[in-house]
From TrEMBL:
Protein name: Hexosyltransferase
InterPro entries xref list: Glyco_trans_8, GNT1/Glycosyltrans_8, Nucleotide-diphossugar_trans
Cross-referenced SUPFAM superfamilies: Nucleotide-diphospho-sugar transferases
Native source organism of the sequence: Lupinus luteus
GO cellular component: Golgi membrane
Subcellular location: Golgi apparatus membrane
Length: 586
């Protein structure tokens, strides 16, 4: 926890004033203990999400893409060909097969002929000038205010010229452990070619599965080749029987987050996506039984009120999906009962400790979210952070595959709302990687972004972040317009910074802390409280302040006053009844 300190003189004067008045109360607070409400959310790195701050960037990408066209050089033939030994299980797969070979050097191919007829698949290798950020740009013009977002093309083979195949064999590039190995465009290209071939040319068995054999030093991308479909793993060989329907959907989505995986609902029907069909599949009751919304609470009860409000907001959207809450024993029985009343079906979990975390740190158990993948009685989960409220029905998201989410910054997604597919196998992979993967921000968001580098972009209105990165009046006007719109234009608001229930209801207390002011919006704050006010008294009582929190709030207000913060929120008289001693909670 870092608090900005403007100058020594000010602090001394300030401390003296406060001490003289509140000596007994504040004595413990001068060295304020770490409190969960102050931790920067994993999303604190979000950049500007407005058109104005990305105009230039966007153009340069386009220019670059054009230049690339002219720069593609033919591949120089490889000098040293290494022979890859055929996997021992290959003959068990079948005899007299038609085998499609992707990215296998000719020399490698010879010995395979004993098992059938091999067909090399020709394709143009993606240009060196093409990098990951072209596919996963930080920002796209989602609302199509001045442009239509598009993806650069990744060269693909002429699929039509090939006959159907019994098995697809591909050699996947893997630069591990070179930095950035996971976000390599050539690696993605070969994955996509293998996946497309499997869908378009692979023979399907009665279970609608098709055979894919991959050679790779690192695990093939789980985003395309599901962990559950892995049948055999021998050395560097990975044998999948891929679920064609699921794979087909994935390859039909954009190749990166360079365009939305889903057009904005308001804007008619896109050529690529038949929304009416999607809507039918989403309203099918038999599927709905195996789909749920979920969130996780562990280690502290600071977000109980948030989870209650989230459940209530979800129910108001009319969803028929289950609401699943994973909690550990840090939540008292009374609070559990309130959470159940609010609409959650509660499941107990044990926390997952991060083996590398120092003991006692706030994110010591930050791997607990992995438990979501153990909800294998559901096919799909929409995970929603407990500091989010939902304003419009989100059921359509169940149509999308893992990993679908909203952009955060650079090439990464925000983990506040995620479409995930539970799987014991995926869970195990996440657990096994605990020691290896370095999270850029020490949060689950950083970790998951290293695992699922190939993700599908949902419109930001599905998880609209409450932050004002550009710090301009235009940004404030546009965003506050959206936060306040009624009927709502946003599907969900993500309350970054200090949470509404940790403030007085009179104003957004992010205003009172210098480094939290980028998260301050009274309009969004009011929106949350409106939802709160509609809840049952028993649920509302879970949103009271603790004694400690009230002290912190008053402290921050006073400090803001001493600093003379220009917005003058600290001058507002508090009318919130929660300030009264008789309404505090433990
Ligand atoms: C990718 O392209 C961007 C924009 O042109 C550039 O800034 C960046 O350095 C490139 N990255 C790599 C790894 O080449
Ligand atoms: C923290 O670490 C110490 C020493 O390594 C150990 O004795 C103690 O049990 C640990 N505490 C917890 C809560 O794990
Ligand atoms: C996943 O593992 C749990 C036990 O760890 C088991 O109860 C469950 O049936 C498994 N799910 C599947 C789909 O195999
Ligand atoms: C959890 O926190 C530790 C530090 O306590 C950090 O090193 C680690 O990367 C974080 N875990 C995840 C999942 O990001
Ligand atoms: C936002 O802009 C105002 C005035 O334009 C400036 O005083 C303030 O420091 C800026 N805040 C941040 C966080 O950049
Ligand atoms: C706040 O309350 C004080 C005393 O109760 C009063 O003097 C002051 O005018 C009030 N300020 C506002 C902005 O209402």
């Amino acid at each position: 926890m870092v608090k900005t300190t403007p100058s020594k003189a000010l602090i001394i004067r300030f401390n003296l004033v406060c001490l003289s008045i509140f000596l007994s109360v504040y004595a413990t607070l001068l060295l304020r203990p770490p409190s969960p409400v102050y931790f920067n959310n994993a999303a604190s790195l979000v950049r500007c999400s407005l058109h104005e701050c990305h105009d230039k960037e966007e153009k340069s990408i386009k220019m670059k893409a054009v230049l690339e066209e002219a720069q593609v050089k033919p591949e120089s033939p490889k000098k040293h060909k290494t022979k890859i030994k055929m996997p021992s299980f290959f003959s068990e797969i079948g005899k007299g097969m038609k085998i499609g070979m992707v990215n296998m050097d000719e020399y490698d191919v010879s010995e395979w002929s004993t098992n059938g007829e091999t067909t090399p698949i020709y394709f143009e290798k993606v240009s060196h000038f093409f990098n990951w950020t072209d596919l996963f740009p930080e920002w796209i013009d989602e609302e199509e205010e001045s442009d239509v977002a598009s993806c650069p093309e990744i060269p693909m083979p002429e699929f039509a010229q090939y006959e159907s195949m019994d098995v697809i064999v591909a050699k996947l590039p893997c630069m591990y452990p070179k930095e950035g190995w996971g976000r390599n465009v050539f690696r993605l290209q070969v994955h996509l070619i293998a996946a497309n071939l499997a869908v378009k040319k692979g023979k399907k068995d009665w279970k609608w599965k098709t055979k894919v054999v991959l050679w790779s030093k690192c695990r093939p991308m789980m985003e395309l080749f599901r962990c559950n479909d892995l049948v055999k793993h021998e050395g560097d060989w990975w044998y999948y029987e891929a679920d064609v329907k699921r794979l087909e959907q994935k390859v039909s989505l954009p190749v990166g987050s360079c365009t939305l995986a889903l057009p904005l609902w308001e804007q008619g029907i896109d050529k690529v996506y038949d929304l009416s069909k999607i809507k039918r599949s989403v309203t099918s009751m038999s599927k709905a039984k195996h789909e749920a919304y979920a969130t996780v609470l562990h280690s502290s009860d600071g977000y109980v009120c948030g989870a209650i409000t989230l459940a209530q907001s979800l129910l108001q959207t009319g969803t028929k999906r289950d609401l699943i809450l994973l909690i550990d024993t840090s939540i008292s029985t009374a609070k559990r009962r309130a959470l159940a009343t609010a609409g959650w079906k509660i499941r107990f979990i044990s926390r997952i400790r991060n083996p590398r975390a120092k003991n006692g740190t706030y994110n010591e158990y930050n791997y607990t979210k992995f438990r979501l993948w153990q909800l294998t009685d559901y096919n799909k989960i929409i995970f929603i952070d407990a500091d989010i409220i939902v304003l419009r029905n989100l059921d359509i998201l169940f149509h999308f595959p893992q990993m679908s989410a909203v952009g955060n910054d650079q090439s990464i997604f925000n983990s506040g709302v995620m479409v995930i597919e539970p799987s014991n196998c995926t869970f195990q992979v996440l657990m096994d990687l605990r020691d290896d993967v370095v999270s850029y921000n020490g949060g689950d968001q950083g970790f998951l972004n290293e695992i699922f580098v190939w993700w599908h972009r949902l419109p930001r209105r599905v998880n609209f972040l409450k932050n004002f990165w550009a710090n301009t009046t235009l940004e404030a006007r546009v965003k506050n317009g959206l936060f306040g719109s009624d009927p709502p234009k946003l599907y969900a608001i993500h309350y970054l910074g200090l949470k509404p229930w940790h403030c007085y209801r009179d104003y957004d207390c992010n205003w009172d802390i210098e480094d939290q002011r980028v998260y301050a919006s009274d309009v969004a704050h009011q929106r949350w409280w409106k939802l709160h006010d509609g809840m049952h008294e028993r649920l509302k009582s879970m949103c009271r302040l603790t004694k400690k929190r009230r002290i912190e709030l008053n402290w921050d207000r006073m400090k803001a006053g001493k600093l003379g913060l220009p917005d003058e929120h600290w001058k507002i008289n508090i009318t919130d009844p929660r300030k009264s001693g008789s309404l505090l909670m433990d």
